Structure formats: structure tokens, C-alpha cells
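Example (one chain per record):
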Amino acid sequence: MVEQWLAALAASSGFAILYGVPRWYVPAAGAVGMLSWAVVLFLEPLTGDIVSLLIGAAAAAGSSEWLARRLRQPTTLFVIPGVIPLVPGGLAYMTVLHFLQGSTDTGLVYLIDTFFASGAIAVGIIMVSSLFRMRPVNR
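Predicted structure:
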């Protein structure tokens, strides 16, 4: 499990560097990704894939909002690299693979799973971001 946390930290930090996050904020962006993946790993056996992704994305968005306000930086600096470990790239790959191999039924199952996973991530981010927008910023 710790190896997966470190892999999520490395992936999020790598994407933060790739996206041009200032170098002194890269560790924070990586930590958000590690947190989101840790939440998913913890909740997946209890709640299933979709709910764990939704809560993991909400954890990434919440920690990103908190860091953004604390460090006086845009939220996107932290939330975009923070959800990288959650992106259902494997599901998308399997969707395309099955469609190309002519297995349309299995491809449709993977396509629906990919849409639900992506939607859960989007809803998790939107819910938390909306809640933070309703709360005034203390200056």
C-alpha cells in the first residue's frame, strides 16, 4: 500500500512539473495526489470503485482549496495534479482495445465504467469547490 502512495506522489509531482507548477509548490501538489489515492485505496473495499473515486476526488478538491487559500495560489495548481492518480486511463484503454478487437459488448461495459468513473471524479471536485465558493474568504 505504501508503494502505491509513493507512486501516486511521484505521478502527481511529475504532472505538476509537466504542467508548469512553480517548483516550491510541487511537493504540495504531489501530496494532494497521494492523499486522494490513499482515500481511494482505503474506501474501495468498503464502498466500491465509483463512490471511492467520488470521495477521493472530493478529498483532492478540499485539500487543494485549503492549500490554495493558505498559500494564496490558484486552486488549479493543486487540484489538477491531485486527481491524476484517479484518472481512469486503464478503463479507457480497455474500452478502445475491446472495440478495436470487435468485442462490442465488452467494450460498451468498459465505456460505461469509464464514464461513471470520470463523472464521479468531476462530481467530487465540483461539490467541494462549490461549497468553498459559498464560504467567504478570510483575508
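Caption: Residues 2-134 form one domain.
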